[in-house]
Design goal:
The protein contains two helices and three strands; from the N terminus they run βαββα. It has one domain (7-70). The mean pLDDT is 94. 24% of the residues lie in helices and 15% in strands. A hairpin with a 5-residue loop joins β2 and β3 (52-55). A three-stranded antiparallel beta sheet has the order 1-2-3. By secondary structure, it is of the alpha+beta class. Bound molecules: zinc ion. Zinc ion is lined by residues 29, 31-32, 37, 39, 56, 58-59. The site of zinc ion (ZN) has 8 residues, from α2.
């Protein structure tokens, strides 16, 4: 895996996350944080430098927008 590679796993997979993380144990949206987001995660994302995060639909859209900036289409 490239150091800055963004990898999106759908659907959300608790096993993708660190067993002790809130994403795995509470199945919440860790991209926004469980105290700030009550939406269920739809995807698991390897999202450097944050590491592995769970993302609700809104968080996933933000990650994709960021990914498109980081990895522009090659001509
Ligand atoms: Zn969220």
């Amino acid at each position: 895996m490239e150091p800055m590679e963004i990898r999106i796993v759908m659907p959300f997979d608790p096993a993708f996350h660190d067993p002790g993380s809130v994403a795995a144990t509470e199945r919440c949206c860790s991209q926004h944080g469980k105290d700030y987001c009550d939406q269920p995660p739809v995807a698991s994302v390897h999202y450097p430098p944050n590491g592995r995060v769970s993302a609700c639909a809104r968080a996933l859209r933000g990650i994709i927008d960021d990914a498109l900036k980081k990895f522009p289409q090659q001509q």
